[in-house]
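Following the same procedure, sequence and fold were stored together, as reproduced here.

>
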Amino acid sequence: MAAAETALVSSSSLETGPAPAPESTGTGAATAATSPATAAARTGSEAMVSKAALATKLLSLSGVFAVHKPKGPTSAELLNRLKEKLLAEAGMPSPEWTKRKKQTLKIGHGGTLDSAAGGVLVVGIGRGTKMLTSMLSGSKRYVAVGELGRATDTLDSTGKVTEEKPYDKITQEDLEGILQKFTGNIMQVPPLYSALKKDGQRLSTLMKRGEAVEAKPARPVTVYSLSLQKFQPPFFTLDVECGGGFYIRSLVSDIGKALSSCANVLELTRTKQGPFTLEEHALPEDKWTIDDIAQSLEHCSCLLPAELALKKPKPEESHEQVLSCEYITLDEVKREDDVIKTC
């Protein structure tokens, strides 16, 4: 499961316009004589006004927040699910609002988690998508469960077993003693199954096709802290805080080799990304509503450095947002797997 740092930005066209004014209700006997058809029309009109207000509020959201990604969907699939829920809540798009001025909902995620991993996924909405670069260059924290004695081609439990070695003589002291070797500024070889590219295609895609792929050279990465939380052979649990471009799968595999055995990742959870923590800031799916996200954006604004505070939009910016298709890195040093993708 890679800690490869990528961000994805997508857009959806929202059609908004002046909300239809509710029909006059009249007074006195006229009110009492209102026909069922008129009442139904009034109810429909009020519902439309409500949806228009929600759409306007959705388009006004800007900033960075976090969601809780479960195991299963990819980060991109989760982003689409989030976007669809917000559009549905706002009643967008609506056939009744055709021919009206369109605006674009811009939403993106940063710091991709593999489908088998879960935890904090940082999301930018509106002008907040432009903040992902600075926000995601900070540290990340993970809890990883490794398995000794078994290696796979993907370096995690989703892959094919490529090697098995004994582990029964490995003690907790052996494991704790080896961790210091992987702390600080170290060199790390990325996994073959990764978002790194060769000739414009991901290595993982080439591997799945059965094509021969050479490992990328080792590159400098940073591990701020690394500790053993639990050891029940063959399983061990690590708490890792690292910088950008770091792969937990490679770490676990390298630890196995250093112990004269082998290892792969069974479970991976990102508990912190930048200032966002899983317990305090990550919204579960039942909180993916316009109001909950608005509250989260307000709550999380105090986490941002002053220089990243969102400025009030200029008048012309409030009329129509445009998705900028650009490639930018998420780390100070550009990496092939550290890009914002647009779709």
Summary: Residues 140 and 160 are 28 Å apart (CA to CA).
